[in-house]
Structures are given as C-alpha cells and as structure tokens.
Amino acid sequence: MNVSTRDENGFWVIRLEGRLDIGNAAEFEKACLAWIDEGRPNLVLDFGALEYISSAGLRSILAATKKAKAANGSLSLCSLSGLVAEVISISGFDSILTVFEDVPQATAGGQA
Q: How would you class 43 by CB atoms within 10 Å of its CB: exposed for 0-12, middle for 13-18, buried for 19 or more?
C-alpha cells in the first residue's frame, strides 16, 4: 500500500493506494494515531485508489476514528468505489462515518 498525505483546508488528507489489509493495517493505524497526536485531528481518508480493504483495515479506521473524536476532531471517508465501497456498506461503516463523494466535498468549509 502506498500512502500520501497533504494538508487541505485544515484537514489532513490521506490518500491510500493498493490494499489495506492484515499486512499493513497496524502500521496504518499507528500512522493515523501519530498524525492526530501531532495536532492533525481532522482526517479525510481518500479511497479513490484503494483496491481492497479487510476487516483488519476496518479496525484500524475505527481506532483512528475514536482517537480523532477524543481529540475533538473527525475522520471521514471519500471517493469510495467498487469492492471497497461494498465492504464499507456491508460492514455498516457508512452509517457510523461520514462519507463524501470526493476530497473537495470532504474538505469544504474548513476544519470540522
């Protein structure tokens, strides 16, 4: 999995490419928690290039969401498609997380 980050309108946008699974979920979770600790509690996960997400990947997102909320921040998802969109829907994550069409929508209006 490749990860790139950027600050956009007060949100830390994290673009994932490839697969978020048991092989890299713990490392991804650790990175998300570190970004929050560094003062970036508003995370947007851009899944436009994510091909697959496993239950381990979902758990890492849930842990980051809890930490972001505890830091008075937020975690949202955007650019879901294909299998990833299906997994997010079937798991019910689309009912507990805010899902946006794309990064501009997710970052509109400044910090949450």
A: buried
